[in-house]
Amino acid sequence: MTCCVTGHRPSGFPFKRKEDSDRYILYKLTLAAKVKELIDSGCDSFITGLAEGADLDFAWSVINLRDLHPEIKLEGAAPYRRAPSFYPTERDEVMAKCDKVTVLSERYYEGCMQRRNMYMVDKSDVVLAIWNGETKGGTWNTIAYARRLGKKIIYIMLYDF
Questions:
Q1: pTM, entire model
Q2: Which domains does the chain have, with CATH numbers?
């Protein structure tokens, strides 16, 4: 069974990810517990969109559980190929730990992020939505697409933290 993630970049979080540390820690613990539940229910394949924020948080949760669950696999879905950065970024670190990286386009174009999101949903049985409740933007569009396809959606509501 495969699970992908959709969620917000740091600006979409209702708390400061590093400054409001108690809320951030509670969110990260909740995310790790949800990934563990998914593994326990049969998910053995995970897909991250590699964006800063929820996507990378999700990827780290999967990576950190691999010692206990070596059977799980992580795919990174990159919307377009980026030139390698001189200084490694968190995204680069996660990509290096992915079992597979799928690059959907050689260059950026308008709509490439949504194409990436649709690719992830199409390949998944379950969508983990890390959502702030807004009904606009990429996270909402991905949730709406998953709903139209009848995918199972599990929510982590950011305003709960």
A1: 0.94
A2: 7-112+122-135+149-160 (3.40.50.450)
